[in-house]
Structures are given as C-alpha cells and as structure tokens.
Amino acid sequence: MQKIATVLIATSLIVLPSLVLAKPLEANTLENGKQNYQRLCLSCHGELGHGDGIAGQALSEQPSNIYQGLNSWFESEAELIDTVLNGNEEMPAWGNLLNEQQVKEIFTYIEYVNKD
After folding, report:
1. pLDDT in tens for each of the 116 residues of the chain?
2. What is the dihedral of CA 33, 34, 38, 43, to 10 degrees?
3. I need a labelling partner for 4 at 20 to 30 A (CA). Which of 19, 63, 96, 114 fits?
4. Cα radius of gyration rounded to whole Å, the chain
5. Using CA atoms, how far apart are residues 96 and 87, in angstroms rounded to an integer?
6. Alpha-carbon dihedral angle through residues 43, 46, 50, 55, given to the nearest 10 degrees
7. Which superfamily does CATH assign the domain made up of 33-114 to?
C-alpha cells in the first residue's frame, strides 16, 4: 500500500506541474495561430478552415479544407506544413512570412475552432 502511495505522489509531482504550465502555452499557441490564420488564410479557407472563404470563391480550384486535411489518413502534418511554406500550383508559398512552428500554431487553432 505504501508503494502505491509513493508512486501516486511521485506521478502527481511530475504530471500536475506540466498540466499547469501547459495552459498558458496553449493560450499563446491558439492566439498566435488565430492571428496568423486571420491574416493569411481566412480569406481563402474561411472561418473554420473548410475552404469556403470569400476570396477562395473566385479561384478556379476551391481551396482545401484544412480541418479535413489535418484529420486525413492520406496527408501527413509534414506534407501540409510543406504545402503552406512552399505552396503548390493552387496555393501561394507562405514560407517568407511563416515558419514551421507558426504553421503548427495555425493547425492547432483550426483544430480548436472545429471542436464540437
């Protein structure tokens, strides 16, 4: 019984501080992601990242659904990051304005706003 109590105390000393410290980081991550998303992505990809933005309607190809891409078995996060940073035939490259961490923050924001 004493061993179990010792393990529980040791575990809580490791886990609880990390949970407390993670909250402010998540808030910063979400805010940074939101700001960059609204500045660079919203007009084409829409409010929730579903590819239904106003500017996207004028394009010959509908912008991709970012949220669906993040939850797809067919595309890895690394492939999506590469597309954002380097662009493709349908999307401009944002690597001159964003780094990999900022793209991940945008993805975190998209996941967050699509939670039920």
Report:
1. 666 655 455 555 555 455 444 556 588 999 999 999 999 999 999 999 999 999 999 999 999 999 999 999 888 999 999 999 999 999 999 999 999 999 999 999 999 999 97
2. 80
3. 19
4. 19
5. 11
6. -40
7. Cytochrome c-like domain (1.10.760.10)
